Amino acid sequence: MNYNLRRNILTAFGIAINITLSYIMTKKGLPFFLDTAGTIIVSAISGVLFVGISTAVLSSALCSLFAAGSIYFSFFNGLIAIFTVWFVNKYSYKNFEKTILFSFLLVLICSLVDAIVQIILFGSEQTTLIAQYARSFSFDSNIPYAVSYFIIDFLLCSMDKGLSFIFVILLLSLIPESKFKSFKEGIWKQKSLSDSDLHSIKEWCR
Prior knowledge:
mainly alpha, 9 helices, about 80% helix, globular
């Protein structure tokens, strides 16, 4: 199977997962999107930025057909793809402690940036579910709306991305290591260098 076909199949697979989960959440009226699970899977398997970002942006564009606000989150979904590719290329998703820390930092960054952008662009007049929760929490706890919005956004984002990461880890754990490595090498169109190969190159460059 050639490079372009592998890439296209993987991207389509990720988009299908994002759209399916997002559609179910929207129809059920739940305060979750789950529109990044496919992006994380694709980014983790391929380790290629273009594939992950393409999945994120196209998913957001298609999800906007039934969830109007989805297109505005394409930037954040792209960030998730970038961070995921960086993580899997540097560490392993099977490292539980690092995966948990990565998930927490990713949620923290995305919710903080999202809160800042939403408040700057729309203020406190938003009609989204998060904004409604934030106004109620701000009134009951007597804290600024911006702080309340961030707290609510962080909690909902933690549950949303937490469910996505659990789904991703379970799915990836079902893929045999040999198949995972073979597919990744096919995406890169070459076999990855072993530790001995890297050592030989370093010695040659001296």
